[in-house]
Amino acid sequence: MEANGSSGLPPGFRFHPTDEELIVYYLKNQATSRPCPVSIIPEVDIYKFDPWQLPEKAEFGENEWYFFSPRDRKYPNGVRPNRATVSGYWKATGTDKAIHSGSKYVGVKKALVFYKGRPPKGIKTDWIMHEYRLSDSKRQASKHLGSMRLDDWVLCRIYKKKQVNKAYLDPKMEDSSPQIDHFTAANDVKEEQMLKFPRTCSISTLLDMDYLGPISQLLNDNSTYDFHNMLASSAGLGSVQTFQFGDQQNQIPYQSADSAKFQVMMNQTINQPLFVNPAYNNMNGLNH
Hints:
The chain contains six helices and seven strands. By secondary structure, it is α+β, with helices and mostly antiparallel strands. It folds into two domains: 5-162, Metal Binding Protein, Guanine Nucleotide Exchange Factor, Chain A (Beta Complex), CATH 2.170.150; 192-279, no CATH class. A hairpin with a 2-residue loop joins strand 2 and strand 3. The protein is extended and about 105 Å long. The protein starts with 18 loop residues before the first helix and ends in a 34-residue tail after the last strand. Residues 9-161 form the NAC domain.
């Protein structure tokens, strides 16, 4: 909290006291009619105003405001404070926090939340109050028996809780971009097509998979077989490149491995023995 020009405080002055300092140097001095280190906390009965009306009652402050306030009883013979305001009420939350100065117990800090309306149907707001009272406040209350005054002074710090954008906190938010779905579907189709073609150059493997067509067509009296027409019609592939197995002159075309598709074709008569899986060694005309 920074001082403004009308407070008479030096430029750059900040007021960020601890809980202990608020009780020992401010509330205790106020209760015993001694001067505080700086006169920046006004005396205001906060229960006669709604919290959004209090900032203009403060000496200075931007995000939090301090007040010395009396407390009245809710019932003539009770010790519960009356926390009703003009259009709502303050409701305690959590447990009281004991404040110590060294090893000495000096006071209590209580947290409260402001609700609009009347209990029990009040609407919770973002206004928060920290109420500080002295450790001997119960003995002071006994001095006011027969009256509605419960405490002469308590110290109140009031501020409005900042709201956090829920868009950054919701883990269930998903990006349902149709463009991403389109590319995902296209990749799935491409991978499915890739699985249809083996990635090996072994003819025996192709024979084991029955990839080159019925074995009976390969081993019939006609030693030639039109691989090009068979594979081109079934796979629908375009132009290919060729490679050789060892010293053999039979060139076996194939398509670039970058496309992840494999195609085998024979452009001339097979004039070399075929080496295939032993499962076919009893077939007609097969040497191994």
